[in-house]
């Protein structure tokens, strides 16, 4: 049996060794320390009792919890830090969004790591232990991951319900756009195909991802297509499927000019889907451009509405856009003139045309372009009595928010490039990224800071891991909250 002895070393100090009796002699097992006052004496007695309990499993009549709060620097080892505050904060947000209903801790932890430090799935499992002290077996990932693909519909339903409750999404406006994600590979398959790349990776296979967001830019649904799919062929089936799943009665989809075609506008009208899409005025026939040039006043805020095969064409003028368009046109004309005077550098540019073996300036195209300087066009099927031109234009200009969502996804969450090579892991990767995007966008909307800023600030609140060498117990001490972290907690109601 171990015992504690108090030895008065001097008038002011008392030693506290732990000893045992062997062969009728006291054998010191551990020196706990020296006390210089009554409080230190009580603390050392508490630590000594804890050491005896840990070493011999001796039971005491009363529990001793006080030793957990007693540290002596010369008996303490710093073993690292955890970012537990960050983990707890994001976990609360996941619960607030409703993703906890999925009831899969490993999947949710991978979502958190995608926000904190994007990496491969197996490295993420390692980082969960390193950053938060949370352990998962790799085998658990291999066993359960294939089952997660069936959760896509549920995660979208949760995101949609949260958007409806928190951001008042009521299906009146749906913003739609697509992007491409390339692979670190040069081999194609059924899903990964070479196609028009928005990342200028034309030699590498890719996939096409369609994203739907609310007017605030909050993501509510996504879809995946083969990399060689023409983006204009995606909007009708995706929006139709969205309407069918959610039993939407009336909806207006907002998309960029790449989505417009006579076939698409006809299909949208047939399915009762209202639309607001960008118009490429440069592709319009001369008669229509002449009508725009003749009828649209060159004043800021002025607009006209013309009937076309693709619906109403709304055109508005801006002096800022005029200066930008004029500068771009003049620069392109100068480049065209340079190519004409230097035939050795034979390139086909916008304002050049071939005349037998010679290249000359395309004056007709220049004249046509001058007529639409400063003018932006929009197609819609909405009657002016229902929605006026100004509102149509304002809705379209909110389309930039979906670009922000893609920016978060590609840059902060590092959705691209993709290193997976089979269809199931690719779709699982996108599921995790979508869930991380939902939480990240909510953070950005409420804090008015980027997700990177949020992560950086929350990482400042560390839990120092200290090992009490007397008791061999780990003690954690959390840093004080910064003013920014307190503001985040307030803005996110956590």
Could you explain how this protein is built, in words?
The structure is a single chain. With 494 residues, this protein is of the alpha+beta class. 43% of the residues lie in helices and 21% in strands. It has a domain of 70 residues. The strands form 4 sheets. It has an 8-stranded mixed β-sheet with strand order 8-7-6-9-10-15-12-11, with helices on both faces. A hairpin with a 2-residue loop joins strand 13 and strand 14.
> Major sheet: order of its strands?
8-7-6-9-10-15-12-11
Summed over residues and divided by their number, the pLDDT gives a mean of 83
Contiguous runs where pLDDT drops below 50 for at least 5 residues:
60-65
Helix content range of the residues, please? 40-55%
How large a portion of the residues is in β-strands, by DSSP E?
15-25%
Q: What gyration radius follows from the Cα positions, in whole Å? A: 33 Å
Coarse shape: elongated
SS summary, helix count: 16
Class by helix and strand content?
alpha+beta
Distance between the termini: 50 Å
For the largest beta-sheet, the strand count, sense and barrel status come to:
8 strands, mixed
Report the oligomer: single chain
Number of strands: 17
Question: What is the compact description of this entry?
Answer:
This protein is α+β, with helices and mostly antiparallel strands and 494 residues long.
């Amino acid at each position: 049996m171990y015992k504690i002895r108090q030895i008065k070393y001097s008038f002011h100090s008392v030693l506290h060794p732990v000893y045992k009796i062997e062969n009728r002699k006291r054998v010191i097992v551990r020196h706990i320390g020296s006390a210089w006052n009554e409080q230190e004496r009580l603390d050392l007695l508490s630590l000594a009792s804890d050491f005896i309990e840990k070493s011999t499993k001796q039971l005491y009549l009363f529990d001793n919890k006080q030793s957990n709060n007693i540290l002596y620097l010369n008996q303490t080892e710093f073993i690292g830090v955890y970012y537990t505050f960050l983990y707890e904060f994001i976990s609360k947000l996941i619960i607030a969004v409703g993703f906890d209903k999925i009831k899969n801790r490993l999947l949710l932890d991978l979502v958190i790591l995608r926000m904190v430090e994007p990496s491969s799935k197996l490295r993420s499992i390692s980082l969960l232990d390193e950053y938060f002290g949370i352990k998962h077996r790799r085998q658990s990932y291999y066993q359960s991951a294939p089952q997660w693909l069936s959760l896509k519909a549920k995660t979208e339903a949760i995101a949609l319900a949260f958007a409806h409750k928190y951001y008042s999404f009521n299906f009146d406006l749906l913003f739609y756009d697509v992007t491409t994600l390339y692979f670190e590979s040069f081999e194609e398959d059924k899903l990964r195909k070479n196609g028009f790349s928005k990342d200028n990776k034309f030699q590498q296979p890719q996939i096409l991802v369609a994203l739907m967001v609310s007017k605030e830019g909050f993501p509510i649904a996504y879809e995946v297509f083969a990399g060689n799919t023409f983006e204009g062929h995606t909007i009708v089936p995706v929006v139709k499927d969205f309407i069918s799943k959610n039993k939407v009665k009336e909806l207006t989809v907002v998309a960029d000019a790449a989505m417009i075609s006579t076939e698409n506008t006809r299909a949208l009208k047939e399915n009762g889907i209202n639309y607001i899409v960008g118009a490429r005025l440069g592709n319009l026939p001369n008669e229509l451009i002449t009508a725009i040039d003749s009828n649209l006043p060159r004043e800021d805020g002025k607009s006209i509405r013309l009937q076309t095969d693709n619906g109403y064409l709304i055109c508005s003028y801006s002096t800022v856009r005029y200066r930008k368009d004029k500068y771009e046109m003049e620069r392109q004309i100068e480049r065209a003139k340079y190519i004409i005077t230097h035939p050795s550098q034979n390139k086909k540019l916008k304002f050049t045309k071939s005349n037998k073996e010679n290249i000359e300036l395309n004056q007709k195209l220049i004249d046509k372009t001058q007529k639409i300087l400063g003018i932006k066009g929009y197609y819609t099927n909405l009657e002016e009595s229902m929605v006026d031109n100004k509102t149509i234009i304002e809705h379209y200009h909110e389309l930039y928010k979906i670009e922000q969502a893609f920016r978060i996804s590609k840059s902060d969450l590092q959705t691209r490039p993709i290193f997976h090579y089979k269809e199931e892991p690719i779709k699982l990767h996108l599921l995790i990224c979508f869930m991380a995007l939902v939480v990240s966008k909510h953070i950005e909307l409420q804090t008015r800071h980027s997700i990177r800023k949020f992560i950086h600030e929350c990482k400042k609140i560390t839990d120092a891991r200290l090992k009490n060498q007397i008791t061999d117990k780990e003690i954690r001490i959390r840093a004080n909250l910064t003013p920014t972290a307190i503001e985040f907690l307030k803005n996110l109601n956590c």
